Amino acid sequence: MVKSPRAFVISTGTEITQGLYADTNAMHLSRILRDHGFEVVGHAAAPDDAGRIRDAIRGTFGVADLVIVTGGLGPTEDDLNREIVARLWEVPLVRVHRAEEMIRERFRSRGVSMPERNLGQADIPEGAKTLLNFWGTAPGFAMPGTGGRPMLLAMPGVPAEWRAMMDRYFRRVVLPMFPNRPVSRIHTIHLSLVPESTVNGWIRDLFDSMEGVRLGILASRGIIRVRIAASGDTDAVRDRRMEAMRGCLRDRLPTEFVLAEGPESTTPEDVVIETCLERRLTIATAESCTGGGIARRLTNVSGSSGVLLEGFVTYGNGAKTRTLGVDGELLERHGAVSGECAAAMATGARERTGANVALSVTGIAGPGGGSKEKPVGTVWFAIASEEGVQTILRAFPGSRSDVREWSENQALDMLRRYARGLPTVPTG
After folding, report:
1. What is the pLDDT of residue 426?
2. What percent of the chain has a predicted confidence (pLDDT) above 90?
């Protein structure tokens, strides 16, 4: 079988190594490389220090066939990458006049005086392919792989700029240098509110069971993704392997836990809106500890206006009584974080909106507010429909944001289950 060319991603900038910004460039570039048949063998981040950047790039020699470096192409003193690459490839910098013209025109069109230092951005290592930048001032460049050095693609660190460059240049500049790549395909099965260890138990014997197929399990606060990566020398071989593994997984993964199959970007809210539109169901939400997060996620989805009738954020007890009709005596007797309150919230939301189903959530997200009887992470849910009201209690781990995300995912899963005619809560 054809081997995948090896790729390495280096992100430069002190703001990354100091933790001021997340290195999302490496994440998104790795996905692009993966989808084009490359094996990403490593990531590195280096501060704006010539020695550290040089060492990071030199460390890929003999390890990678392609290196992508983002950042360090600006006009300031700490933008060092073009000079470092030129020294490592033992070539001088040369002025690219078309790039210089574009930089001058960009400043002219904005009516801004151009600092002379910006013209240094038009210098690239001799022998490199210039990647003209139509979205910013700094051109990128592609260095050939020679003398034991990998091919190197240097681009600005601004995501909008390097993404546009990848769209314009990757297929025509980089891919022709690596013609013998396996044909890859990714397929993801999304599951909800089932422990990662349980999923692993269902499918553990399938790992490494098929040539050209890799399985992975990714978990994030109640959402599990089983990721299939299939590859082959041809489309037909790849697709045959993919379908064989999909069939095996369908036999192992209980349908009630499966949110969806397909793109990795699929979310629980996508599934809820799609299913409710198909079945002409309407929803209302009543939220306390999630502060409108469930409604926000539902309305992120196109078509949600045909599903979500209204969302109530009733954070305080007075709002629960005034807006949803929760009885004040009930709150005094049971408290806002109780099954009784959750049931009253869901019932009130459904009565006021006429929705087919109403979902409520009330809990203690922390870090304060907990007690021995009701510790931080205690969250009650209720779902009200023509069949009646059902409440469930959950205890979620983690920080305030973790508890809120767990709660949103639990609520969305209850709505998904209702819309699909499944038990609102797993019976097993």
Report:
1. 75
2. 89
Rounded Cα–Cα distance for residues 5 and 20 (Å): 32
Residue 428, pLDDT > 60, answer: no
Q: b/e string for 277-299 if b means 16 or more Cβ within 10 A? A: eeeebbbbbbbbbbeebbbebbb
* CB contact set of 296 (below 8 Å; sequence gap of 6+): none
Same fold, 183-262 and 268-419: no
Q: What is the percent of the chain where pLDDT is above 70?
A: 99
Distance CA 340, CA 380 (A): 9
Q: Quick one: tokens of 163?
A: 């993404």
Classified by CATH at the fold level, domain 183-262 comes out as Alpha-Beta Plaits (3.30.70)
Q: 184-193, 290-299, 322-331, 418-427: lowest mean pLDDT where?
A: 418-427
Separation CA 200–CA 126 (nearest Å): 52
* Virtual torsion, Cα 407, 255, 428, 370, nearest 10 deg: -10
What is the distance between the alpha carbons of residues 396 and 403, in angstroms, rounded to a whole number? 6
pTM across the whole model: 0.76
What are the tokens at 368? 């304060």
| Domain ranges across the chain | 6-177, 183-262, 268-419
Q: Residues for the chain: how many in total?
A: 428
**d(C-alpha 278, C-alpha 382), whole Å:** 23
Tokens representing 8? Answer: 């390495």
For every residue of 350-388, DSSP letters joined together read HHHH--SEEEEEEE--SSSS--SSS-TTEEEEEEEETTE
Would you state the CATH architecture of domain 268-419?
Answer: Alpha-Beta Complex (3.90)
For residue range 107-158, what is the model confidence (pLDDT) as tens digits?
Answer: 999 898 999 999 999 999 999 999 999 999 999 999 999 999 999 999 999 9
Query: Which amino acid, 379?
Result: V
Q: Is the predicted pLDDT of residue 5 greater than 90, yes or no?
A: yes
What is 6-177's CATH topology? Molybdenum Cofactor Biosythetic Enzyme; Chain A (3.40.980)
In sequence order, which residues have a C-beta less than 8 Å from that of residue 47 and are 6 or more positions away? 12, 13, 14, 16, 17, 18
| Cis check: omega of the bond before 367, within 30 degrees of 0 | yes
The span from the CA of 112 to the CA of 129, in Å, is 29
Are the CB atoms for 247 and 272 separated by under 8 Å?
Answer: no
